[in-house]
Design a protein that fits this description.
Length: 446
């Protein structure tokens, strides 16, 4: 008996030693640039996902809710309640504290190591692993999340929007570092309803690749999950401003329709599809080739990459010949994601579409898809500006929100807001995440 125990211990030690050596070699190769990403490195999940979790029966949700912890990852000692209420003194104090306290963010290696034990990872990061109400259980949502860096922010987003009945397709920019890809893949592998897209694009700002990334996810989401109701596309710098229950309530009011920006395009934006563009050194370059008009499309409409669309919309555009023709025509345009979804929304025959008449135009502030502050529209709202000044910083004329923006943000009807960045203001995300977690707890089981 003693001899068998010793033999068992020796075998365990050998397996552990070989595992450590393998991890060490992989990490060393990644750091030296000796390894390149190949999907064969990672295990392939089953083709279909259908929710089979042990959800509580009717009337038992409240009991399950009592097991949850109010997540309070308070890295900064601030009064989030005062900040959310727009307290100027507390917002100013938070900005001083942000400058004085430089905290190290969780890097790729942290997530790669933490996800070696998925059970511990899920428990320590406080993921909610059961449906919080019968209504949420019966209304699954499909997400496409396009990321290229910052595992910490991606994981924070995933944790906040995660529920076991939803399904999540993660598209990683194929140019991303191997360390980032491994970390994100490891996170996804801890959940049966989170997967990495089977085909990864080399994302180039302003090119067709951004649209293709969403189309890749749409196809897989339809194949893997047979009952999701709505599709929402996100980026790694988005964050919800509504709980999952609140999102569902707003989606139900759409009654299968869509909500996305779609307006008559101005002359400047029309240049994006008037000429042919090509990618040169990872940048979009305009050629002198004037594009031919597309016959079956009456007008091209202006919009954004953000959308909230029903399942029937997705099923239709992936098989409809006219939609496919529009996709092909758009592949050599500039920023096609800023007109292609908006145009599909106004095409006859597309589920949930609206007539092309200007009376049916929808601005980004009217759509529920995404709340964005544009620099050139900020200022004094009493003097005609669209929204108050950004309290964070700007990137490509878009506000990267600060803590001082939260009071205004939470008064809006949108489901998500863009952009957040913990390098700009980590306190903004800390307070928003705490707010959503506490609101989720209050509504849990109802």
């Amino acid at each position: 008996m003693i001899w068998k125990c010793k033999q068992f211990l020796r075998e365990c030690f050998l397996i552990l030693l070989l595992t450590c050596i393998t991890v060490f070699v992989l990490n060393l190769g990644a750091k030296k640039g000796l390894l390149t990403y190949n999907r064969d490195y990672f295990p392939v999940k089953s083709q279909h996902f259908t929710w089979k979790g042990n959800l509580p029966s009717s009337g038992a949700y409240k009991a399950k809710c009592s097991e949850l912890e109010v997540f309070t990852e308070s890295l900064y000692d601030v009064n989030c309640t005062a900040i959310l209420q727009g307290d100027v003194r507390e917002i100013e104090r938070s900005q001083l504290l942000k400058v004085q306290t430089m905290l190290e963010i969780l890097n790729d290696s942290y997530y790669t190591e933490a996800t070696q034990n998925c059970e511990n990872f899920i428990r320590s990061r406080k993921y909610i692993m059961f449906a919080l109400s019968k209504e949420e259980e019966q209304f699954p949502i499909a997400y496409s999340v396009v990321v290229h860096q910052r595992t910490d922010q991606f994981e924070r987003l995933l944790r906040t929007i995660y529920t076991p009945q939803n399904i999540y397709c993660i598209h990683i920019d194929n140019k991303s570092s191997l360390d980032f890809k491994i970390a994100v893949h490891n996170i996804a592998s801890c959940f049966p309803n989170v997967f990495i897209a089977g085909k990864l694009e080399n994302l180039v700002y302003g090119s067709w690749s951004r649209v293709q990334a969403d189309l890749n996810c749409m196809e897989e989401l339809l194949a893997r999950h047979l009952s999701w109701k709505y599709f929402i596309n996100l980026s790694g710098m988005d964050f919800p401003i509504k709980t999952n229950s609140e999102i569902i309530h707003q989606l139900q009011h759409l009654e299968g329709g869509s909500s996305l920006e779609s307006e008559v395009a101005t002359g400047r934006k029309q240049l994006h599809w008037k000429y042919s563009f090509t990618v040169v050194n990872r940048k979009m370059v305009k050629t002198n080739i004037v594009k031919k008009t597309i016959s079956h499309v009456a007008s091209i409409f202006s919009g954004s990459a953000h959308m909230v669309v029903g399942r029937q919309f997705v099923e239709h555009i992936l098989k409809d010949p006219k939609a496919k023709q529009l996709f092909e025509w758009s592949k050599d345009t500039y920023n096609p994601d800023e007109f292609i979804w908006a145009t599909l929304q106004r095409m006859p025959g597309v589920p949930g579409s609206k007539p092309s008449h200007p009376k049916y135009d929808v601005s980004d502030m009217r759509s529920m898809a995404r709340l964005v502050k544009w620099k050139y529209l900020e200022g004094d709202v009493t003097k005609g500006k669209a929204y108050p000044l950004c309290t964070g910083s700007h990137h490509r004329s878009i506000c990267i929100y600060g803590a001082g923006d939260l009071n205004w943000i939470l008064q809006q009807h949108h489901l998500f807001a863009n952009k957040f960045d913990t390098d700009v203001d980590p306190i903004a995300l800390q307070c928003l995440e705490q707010y959503l977690r506490q609101k989720t707890m209050v509504g849990c089981g109802t």
